[in-house]
Each structure stands twice: as C-alpha cells, then as structure tokens.
Amino acid sequence: MSLSEAVGRYAALWRTPGVPRVMLPAMLARLPVAIEPLAIFLHISAETGSYTAGAAALGVFSAALAVAWPLHGRLIDRRGLRVVLLTLAALHAVALALFVVASSGPSWLLVASVAPVALTMAPVGSTVRAAWALILPPGPALNTANALEAVLVEVFFVIGPALTGLLTGVFSALTTTLLAGGMLIVGSLLYGTAPAVATMRREADGSEPGAAAAGQSDARGGRRPWRIPGVLAILVAAGGAAAAFAVLEVTVPATVSAHGDAAATGVALLSLPPAASVLGGLVYGARQHTRLPVNRYLVLLAVAFACMVPLVFATSVPVLAVCLFLAGLPLAALSSEEFGLLGSLVPKTVINESFALAATMMAVGSAAGTLAAGAVLGWLGPTEARLLSPTAALIAFAAVLSMRATLSTVDSLATADSGA
C-alpha cells in the first residue's frame, strides 16, 4: 500500500459525518488519564514528604478505577452515554474540590480523597471505541478507527508524563491536577453532547441490525459479557499482553543498571515501545486485511511473543534498545484487533461494559506484571525477570487459541466486509 493510500484511509475516516465531533472532545478528555494520577502522586509525595504515601495514593487510584469503569460501562449501556458522562463530569468537579480541601488535612485523609477522584473519572477511552462500533459500519473504516484509537493511547502515554513535568515545573502538582481535571470535565461535556453520541443509546436499543438477536442472547441466559463464549479468552489475552509490557517497566531499568549504566537510561528506553507502537499501529490501520479477525489477532500475539524472546538474551544496552523497539511494533495493532473482535462478539447492549472490562483487565494485568517482575527481580535477577514478558504473551496467545473455533464464527459480516 502506498503512502497516499494510507493517508487517504485516515482522511476518509476524518470526513465521516460525526467523527470529528466525537474524536476531538474524546482526545481532550483522555489526555488527563495520563496526567492526573502522576500529578496526584507528585502532590501527595510533596505534601507528606513521603514517596510511600504517594505510591499508596496511586494504588488507591488504580484500585478505584478497576472497580469504577466496568460499573460505569454497565450504567452507560442501561442509561445512555450522555447522562452518565454529564453526571460523572459534575461529580468529578466535586471530588477535585474535596481533594483540595483534604490537602490541608492528615496524610491518611489526603490519600483516601484520591478514591472519589478516580471513581468519578469518565471511561472515555472505552466508550469511544464503542462509539466507533455503533457509528461506523463493519469493515475497513472500523478497522482503521480501532487502529487509530490504539495509536492515540500510546501517544497520550508518551506525552502525558512530559506534559505533567512541564506543568508541575511551571505551576505546581496540585494546580496540574486541577488543570487535568478541568480538561477531563470539559472534554466529557463536549463528547457527551456530540449528536452522534446522543443517538448511541437508541441505536443500541433496537434500530441497529442484530439488536434483536442480542436481546435474545441476553434473555436466554441473562448473561453478563464475561459469560458469552469467547469473551473471557479475550479478557485474559488483554491482561496477559498488558502484563508482558508492564514487566518491561521494572526489568529494563534494572537491566541497564546491571550493565553499568544509570537507571535513568533504562527509563528513557521505555519510550521506545510506545514510539514503535504508534508507527506499527498507523501502518496496520491503513492496510486492508483479508484474514479472519481471530487469525489476525493470533498472528499479532505470536509476533509479540516472538519479539519479546530476544529481550531475555539482550547482552548490551544498544541490543536491548533494538529489542524494545521491535517488541513495541505490534502493540497498537494488538489493541485494535482486541477491541474489534470483542465488539463483534458481544451484543451492542453491553458493549460499553465489555470494553470497560477489557480496560480493567489491562490495568489488572499491568499491576500483576509489575508485582511479579519486582518479586522475581529481587529473588533471581533481571534476566530471569525478563522471562516473564514472553511468558505472559504466550499465555495471551494460548487463551485466544483455545477459543479459536468460537471466535472464528463471530461477526461474519465484518469479516466479509474487511476482505472486500
């Protein structure tokens, strides 16, 4: 595919009615997810004089998000996106005010005040993927949108920490927290009032093709998303892939230190996988795909595993850098296929809850990978700890492979369209 054809696909997506009005506010609302937790960590660490308190606050924040986002997704499926987002925007403003008040109180109260901030953070990232599944027809346009979403996630987490450092240096960590919260609130309000978003609930309730079948599926078993055959495999794979990359956050700085360089060099190297992911995701999203979605997903998981194996045997910092770049190439494409396959598998009436569950599994997998890497690192060493990355990727591959027959039968319309 030529560069002009690739650019044409993204340009065509941008020209689709309703897409810019959804995409721009969603971008504004999603960037704070990469800023707010870090700013809170810096503020609490400075206020208490303890990095332990800051780390505890991050733990509270992550745990609250893991609980909140699936619940938010379920509410959105039942009540509609607009009403839930507008309510969360108002509650987030209140939670930030309580956080400011708690800053003058005891340390335990300040750490505890982080929970309402996280609990009221709107799950824009997962809902915008659901929006594409409802706004765009199955096929190349939806594949490109999912790939672009995965790329944007990587971009946000590349520029988020840098922007946090800049704002904290110019203002303060507390002011940065409030600025990020303001971005989230304004972005959520604009996104939640987009005309295309306003119709999502009605379309999901019955006017879209397949809604009746979805209703029958729910009525038959009163199923929650994880009880639908194949969904649990995708959730496990999402957690496994996230764990594989989270291991690197611990092991790469330790590996660099073991080779006699500063740990900060290892931290800098961690920017290579997201950068490669952006490149890989843009190329992947611009391509036409002829394989079944599940086969594409399995190939990407196998590529991720193959790219992580050399990390175990990296003998120098330059070699490690090359391996990290290679390991990051399939990441955005993986996320794109993951959400595309999940969106094909679940009824549209539970799509927001399903995508929020996938995001939660990524958070859980990331936390598990970090903890496991830290334990193995302290017990055996960095080389053994790096083995956890390909191991987690292999678990993700095995989970999807075990349900390949089931996943091969879903969304035949999308498969036929993407092969056209």
TrEMBL record:
Sequence intervals crossing the membrane: 50-71, 83-102, 173-192, 230-250, 262-285, 297-327, 355-380, 387-407
Keywords recorded for this protein, A-Z: Membrane, Transmembrane, Transmembrane helix
Superkingdom, natural source: Bacteria
A matching Pfam family: MFS_1
Oxidoreductase listed as a keyword: no
InterPro entries the record matches: MFS, MFS_trans_sf
Protein name (Swiss-Prot/TrEMBL): MFS transporter
Organism: Micromonospora tarensis
